From TrEMBL:
Gene3D superfamilies: ABC transporter involved in vitamin B12 uptake, BtuC. It comes from Geomicrobium sediminis. Belongs to the ABC-3 integral membrane protein family. It is a multi-pass membrane protein. InterPro entries: ABC_BtuC-like, ABC_TroCD. This is Zinc transport system permease protein. It is found in: Cell membrane; Membrane. PANTHER family: ABC-TRANSPORTER METAL-BINDING PROTEIN, METAL ABC TRANSPORTER PERMEASE. It holds the Pfam family ABC-3. Keywords: Membrane, Transmembrane, Transmembrane helix, Transport. The keyword Transmembrane applies.
Length: 286
């Protein structure tokens, strides 16, 4: 069952890409959840769809666009969307959360228009929406590897700064931390990871990979650093299970990945409930 993934290039690509995405997406998700910005992933995934839909539309009129992968235009739109979110959070000040639905709504609206002009859905667009094991080519894998390396290096270099900004932006600013460009850099990383993850998880489900493993990790971790470890572990279990079962059962891997992430979350919540009940019994017995 596992051997078949090493016999074909596209399956091997999907497996390696899945391992990398399952690692970096939940790790960035830890910061998003702590900053109470988990819906940013939703907004950026939908603005990525806008870029992909525009590329597919333009490919109908200009042959040159057929030579390039639509995911690259999706990445450009995701980065632009992250910049707009950052700017809108500054503009609205005390109502920073407004930036997310604004970008999300704009992304969905434009995507629907482009899809309509392109004569509706096609097989390629369907795979972007829900993920596909067969869709990960060698160029996609190389892109994901580069993004993963960049993310891991920057997480190592700026861990303390992003940790500080996640818990107290105002105190970080008072302390002299150059938070604006660090926030901008983080937003761009999130945008790139979301766009890269779409091949495996799909546009409609990618935000779940950045938040559900983190939600599960919060039930186990006793420190901020432990959250990274548990989130990465749960992300790996979800992604690898989704890829294997998705391929063998002929299902969209994105859906299976999310279902596994939900199951892990439910088991984590159940574990916490059992532990609390046990502690209460011990207290009462004393």
């Amino acid at each position: 069952m596992i051997d078949v993934f090493f016999q074909y290039d596209f399956l091997r690509n999907a497996l390696i890409a899945g391992v990398l995405i399952g690692l970096i997406a939940p790790m960035l998700g830890v910061f998003l959840v702590v900053k109470r910005m988990s819906l940013v992933a939703d907004a950026l995934s939908h603005i990525t769809l806008t870029g992909i839909a525009l590329h597919l539309l333009l490919a109908n009129f200009f042959a040159i666009f057929s030579l390039y992968d639509p995911i690259y235009m999706g990445m450009v739109f995701a980065v632009i969307g992250s910049l707009f979110i950052n700017q809108l959070r500054t503009v609205y000040g005390h109502f920073k959360e407004l930036a997310i639905p604004i970008i999300l709504s704009a992304g969905v609206g434009l995507a629907v228009i482009f899809i309509s002009l392109a004569d509706g859905f096609n097989t390629d667009l369907y795979s972007y929406l829900f993920g596909s094991v067969a869709a990960v080519g060698s160029n996609d894998l190389m892109t994901i590897i580069i993004i993963a390396v960049i993310v891991l290096v920057l997480l190592f270099v700026f861990y303390k700064e992003w940790f500080f900004l996640s818990f107290d932006e105002e105190q970080a600013a008072i302390s002299g931390l150059k938070g604006k460009w660090l926030e901008l850099l983080f937003s761009i990383l999130v945008a790139l990871v979301i766009a890269a993850s779409i091949r495996i998880v799909g546009i409609l489900l990618v935000s779940a990979l950045m938040t559900l493993p983190v939600a599960s990790a919060m039930q186990w971790a006793k420190s901020f650093k432990q959250m990274f470890v548990y989130a990465a572990i749960f992300g790996q279990i979800s992604v690898l299970s989704g890829i294997f079962l998705g391929f063998h059962l002929d299902l969209a891997p994105g859906g299976v990945i999310v279902v596994f992430a939900v199951i892990i979350l439910l088991l984590s919540l159940l574990k916490n409930k059992i532990v609390k009940a046990s502690l209460n019994r011990n207290v009462q017995n004393r």
